[in-house]
Design brief:
Length: 312
């Protein structure tokens, strides 16, 4: 029995670099303070979503406003910037607080990270439309490990690495355990050279239409401009259309005078996803969808976007 106990103790020492630490101390080997970023610092991530699969792009520090205590973080892919504008899947684009890397949701900074990292610390924040209860559960390879659950049963898992100053893994799952968003670090560096985008967006409509329904369904949305008073540069829209059992349908958007600004027609067997932009104009719009025959669905999302672009 004594031999077994000694073996267990030795194993515990061997695993001390894995998840877990002393309750009363900072996480061993983990950088405790918020890192100091510089313009041009970048992190290359693989992004994964159920809507778009995998894509790879760099998050880049584009501005530092010491007066307001904020960084500006953009992305090297215009397409990814548009996806975020309408899907809202990447919470780390836009303004970030210098002191603690708090990110913004609905205009308010959210403390996703909890410096200094201490094992067992708990805190709360809002992100991705959910209210989260987070805990530092340990460290692995010098990175703090955080787990969080939301009121509705969603979950987060993310790692923060002080040696490269940002996330190396961020994973969001819904209450069924289905992946909603994952970002995985593949490389990092500084002195980025190239174009970078961030689209400051306001959601205008998110509507899911489902058959079998024979006939026309309507809805409306109003563009009253961005809350900042700045006019939108364009609208970004996303359509997920599925007509899998012989159904067909149409989608159109018309302004108050009846002029068509977007029109799509779907034939039986169509399964498509579309992300694009159209010109914006302050107005009230009517959304019309027809579904005919068989089981079918159309998921329509649209947001007004203010484009920011930097060339570093």
């Amino acid at each position: 029995m004594r031999t077994v106990l000694i073996a267990v103790l030795l194993l515990s020492v061997t695993l001390s670099g894995c998840i877990g630490s002393d309750d009363s101390e900072n996480l061993e080997g983990v950088v405790l303070e918020s890192p100091g970023w510089q313009i041009g610092d970048w992190w290359l991530y693989t992004f994964e979503t159920p809507q778009f699969g995998e894509d790879t792009a760099r998050l880049v520090v584009t501005e530092i406003n010491h007066g307001e205590g904020q960084y500006m973080l953009g992305i090297s892919s215009e397409r990814e910037a548009q996806r975020h504008a309408v899907i809202n899947h990447n919470p780390f684009l836009g303004r970030i607080i210098i002191d603690d890397l708090a990110v913004y949701e609905n205009g308010e900074p959210q403390h996703v990270f909890n410096f200094p990292w201490n094992y067992g610390d708990t805190w709360e924040f809002d992100l991705l439309g959910e209210h989260w209860f987070a805990q530092t559960v340990g460290s692995i390879d010098g990175k703090a490990v955080v787990e969080a659950d939301s009121d509705s049963g969603h979950s987060l898992l993310y790692h923060f690495g002080g040696d490269f100053g940002f996330i190396d893994l961020f994973e969001w799952r819904n209450q069924e355990g289905d992946l909603q968003f994952r970002m995985s670090l593949t490389d990092t560096g500084n002195d980025y050279s190239g174009d970078v985008w961030f689209i400051r967006a306001t959601d205008l409509k998110d509507r899911y239409f489902e058959g079998p329904v024979d006939g026309e369904l309507t809805d409306t949305f109003v563009d009253s401009g961005h809350p900042s008073g700045i006019d939108f540069n364009y609208y970004v829209f996303y359509i997920d259309a599925a007509f899998v059992q012989g159904g067909s349908g149409t989608l159109s958007i018309k302004d108050h005078a009846g002029n068509s600004v977007l029109s799509r027609q779907y034939t039986p067997g169509t399964q498509s996803q579309e992300l694009a932009t159209i010109p914006s104009r302050t107005d009230e719009y009517t959304l019309e969808v027809t579904l005919t025959g068989g089981q079918s669905s159309i998921h329509f999302m649209i947001a007004g976007g203010i484009e920011n672009k930097w060339t570093l």
